[in-house]
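Thread: "does anyone have the structure for this chain?"

Original post by V.I.:
We have the sequence but no experimental structure in hand. Need at least a predicted one for the grant figures.
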Amino acid sequence: MSPGGDIELACDYEGEPNGLAFHRDGHGVIADHYHGLMRLDPISGEVTRLLVRNTNERFRGTNDLTYASNGDLYFTDQGTSDLIDRSGRVFCLRANGTLDLIFDQLPSPNGLVLNAEENILFVGLTRDNAVWRMRLKENARADQVGRLIRLSGGTGPDGMAADASGNIFVCHVGLGTIWVFSPIGVPLYRIDSCNGLATTNCAFGGSENRTLYITESSSGCVLTAELPTPGREFFSHM
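Reply from O.Q.:
Generated one for you, tokens below.
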């Protein structure tokens, strides 16, 4: 989608795509609810399997993903988990190809974003209507896990992003809002949708990286908001 709103089909394949992130070398990785992680060639539009199993079992339904600056790829395996079925998980596909389980027994892990120092992972738990904070340890499971932010109303947090100051942007699906919190969870302001309540994902781009692009899935629209602070630099642009 161009800044002017012109749309071109990038790829078409049999699957259930959710999240999307780009590697520094230009290829995209799709978190596909049915297949797992898929590799996208943005030039040819070809989509191939990247990672469909955790050892001897298929993923339960991958949802969203984010790169660390060293090329490690964190992703959520949401499936159909909720407060009763706490089967959601967070994985990390290391830059060297090793797959690590970061945390399990989660109620509907969805969007995720790292803090500026990349030693904390923030994860939106949709069915818990909260954002959890997980301390990362090298090649090990996360610890000191707890709730950083408790939301109210709507369905719960979906996609997440961060700006250059470390502020956290949380798409609150069902409420039509993107909440903006400081790195320690202080509410700063909110961005309200001008069209629909299903604000599902957001990402920075545009001039000086100050435009927040927001997907609103009930209407199939992409919304924009101009912000005072630029977004954090993506791994793909480092």
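V.I.: this helps a lot. The longest strand covers residues 140-150.
O.Q.: and The domain at 17-237 is CATH 2.120.10.30 (Neuraminidase).
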